[in-house]
Amino acid sequence: MDRTAQFKSPGIPKAVRNTVLAGVFILCLAWSLTSTSKSMNLYVQDLLFAARGTAPFDPSIIIVAIDEPSFGVIGRQWPWPRAMHARLIDNLYRSGARVAALDLIFAEKSDLENDQALKDTLQRHPGTVLATLYDTADTQLFARETFVTPHPDILTGDTRTGFINLPNQGDGRVRQVRLATRDQESFPLAVFKSLGRSRNLTPSPVLGLNFAGPPGTIPMVSYYQALDMVHLPKDYFKDKTVLVGFVSLNADASLSRPDHFPVPWSRWGKGYMSGVEILATALSNLTEDNPLRQVPLRLLLLLSLLVSAGLVIAGSGGRRHLPIPLWAAVVCLVSLVCAWLFFRFNLFLPVVELMLPPTACAVTMLLFHFLDIRHEKLFIRKAFSTYVSPEVVRELENHPEKLDLGGEEREITAFFSDIEGFTPISESMSPKSLVTFLNEFLSEMSDLILANQGTVDKFEGDAIIAMFGAPLILEQHALQACTSAVRMQRRLAVLNDTWQKRGLPPIRMRIGLCSGAAIVGNMGTRRRMDYTMMGDTVNIAARLESANKIYGTYTLISDTTQSGLPDRIITREIDTLTVLGRKKPLTIYQLIGFREDMPDTLPDLIDLYSKGLNHYRSAGFEKAAACFTKALDIDASDRPAHIMLDRCRTFMQHPPPPGWDGVYAQEKK
CB under 8 Å to 435, separation ≥6 — which residues? Predict the structure, then answer.
């Protein structure tokens, strides 16, 4: 088991996350199959048509348009005589047309002469295609579907017919045609077969329209031009497939004109497309075998599942921030792939159905991430607010990556303090007064530690244990610790004056500091834990606090702490010491204070003490004693000089053994 994980913010359980993500995926998957989702996909499809522009079209297909100029030239209202249509058909085939197809329904009986003229023409040209229509008659009680066909008086046994119904896809736009229904075939399929071609309708009788462009893209000539071959070469329709139908290229008028339908291009202000042009598009898709296809639903759902799973896996563990940028990258990639498939292979990838479940999963994981951050901040605030400054708490909340709650090696300065002679003081006070007094002292001292970015580890009676450099990394942790110690000693002097006025005894505080590597982090049991420090650096700091008793000092620091201080901090080398429980000797220093606050006599005192210490280490005890005596002449209350002078006098009477190295051994706390 990962023991460090026991001390981290639990956040949302993994089982809950997985259950929610699975539910979100299923719900969005179901929603992606609704009409709303399909409408969004259709919008993307229309956008791709607009982005692609025009596309290749079967050049053998041409439209003869029953248009406004034709009405003007012919000078007659609709319906036109069927003999005129017969003459048009004859002219088309005489000009070399392969197939003529009329998007016109001759359902009613006309006069005998016109019907016979059209029938005779159809007999001469058996490959000609006429239109049929499924129509719905609404009554008050029910709707009845009827099948409208050409009148029997004009049909021959070889005349092909095909229905011209154009289904819309919910938003009113035409994007596909049905090639067959029941026992009937569609108009474009009938023309396709008249060309001697065939198509397997087993996979799907629905053809996705791959539009060549906006209305008017397919080549057209006016009806009146083809009727009399006005301004057209005699072989103009040679090897052409000719579709005849109503066409209006007036975008405004087409909105209310029959036999015109909205298509993808209509969304972008390109007007409605005539039915005959839509049928010609379907025929071109058949002859060129380039209809618009769509990625199968099963493959689409599988891709959606794989993308969603990838995002979830990417967002697990310590990479919770990854799903959103990864999702954005996937969206861009899918969009590019969708455009490439559409432009290159006429294959439409429904991006909404594909990306909606992964998007919902990514958003859900982002919500989890924010909840985790909130849990983490609450956890950090609860764990640290009692022993670090509010600024440090805010920094940890904003940058939790700076915190390893399970324990890590860190360069810190360990801090230990204790009140000198606290037992007699406590015995002279009532329990209530003692608690009030001690709380005031600890509050004042810990505030100064926090103000210098330190972390209060714990209180042990009157002792304060703290660290500088964790949980936040401090480049100048030694300076921060020494600054805090100096200010604490100053503040204690002010407090003593206040306490004396209240009849309370003055106190003195001993401090020990050591800088170096230590293990810091949350340590303890599942039920109780503390953010604390462990290691040799911590033990040395504790021993230096008690070593103050040996030298009569109140703040001792290790050589590792002293080496990290700027010149504005005044220290004095005191001795070389082996602390209790440690064999390796340690050079220790007295922390005196800020340079700007020091008296003028202090440099001479420090210089004499330093010279005396050098003589002492080389066993020159008489010279050392003389230096320490001169130091006491400058400041008779200097306790380290008194201690060292006494040692010199002792060694002058009882010299140390041969090989003595000048190191003093600490024998008790």
Answer: none
Cα–Cα nearest to 579, from 558, 553, 565, 562: 558
Residue whose entry in the numeric block shows the structure tokens 């089982």:
15
- The CB density around residue 356, as the number of other CB atoms within 10 Å, is 22
| CB-based contacts of 298, cutoff 8 Å, min separation 6 | none
First to last CA, the chain: 39
What's the token pair of residue 245?
A: 């139908």
For 156, half-sphere exposure in the C-beta direction (CA atoms, 13 angstrom radius) is 17
Strand-pair partners of 587: 576
Residue 515 region by backbone torsions, left for phi larger than 0, else alpha for psi between -120 and 50, else beta: beta
**Measured distance CA(193)–CA(190) in Å, rounded:** 5
Beta bridge partners of 456: 466
Per the CB < 8 A criterion, the answer to whether 205 and 62 are in contact is no
Provide φ and ψ at 249, rounded to 5°: -95, 10
pLDDT tens for 535-585 read: 999 999 999 999 999 999 999 999 999 999 999 999 999 999 998 888 899
> Could you tell me what percentage of the chain is helix, strand and coil, using 3-state DSSP and rounding each to the nearest 5?
50, 20, 35
Task: Name the strand (E) or helix (H) holding 29.
Answer: helix 14-31
Q: How many CB atoms are located within 10 Å of the residue 661 CB?
A: 9
* Residues 6+ away with beta carbon under 8 Å from 140: none
Which residue blocks in 53-186 are alpha helix, DSSP H? 68-74, 82-94, 112-124
User: pLDDT tens for residues 175-232?
Assistant: 999 998 877 899 999 999 999 988 777 666 899 999 999 999 999 999 999 998 878 8
Three-state DSSP state, 144: strand
The full DSSP string for 209-220 is ----SSTT-S-E
Alpha-carbon distance 615 to 547, whole Å? 22
Secondary structure (3-state) at 131? strand
Token output for 413: 């300065």
Distances 612 to 330, 604, 605, 627, 639 between C-alpha atoms, Å: 75, 12, 11, 5, 14
Cα torsion angle, 376, 377, 378, 380, sign? positive
> H or E segment at 130?
strand 129-138
Token reading at 161: 């017919």
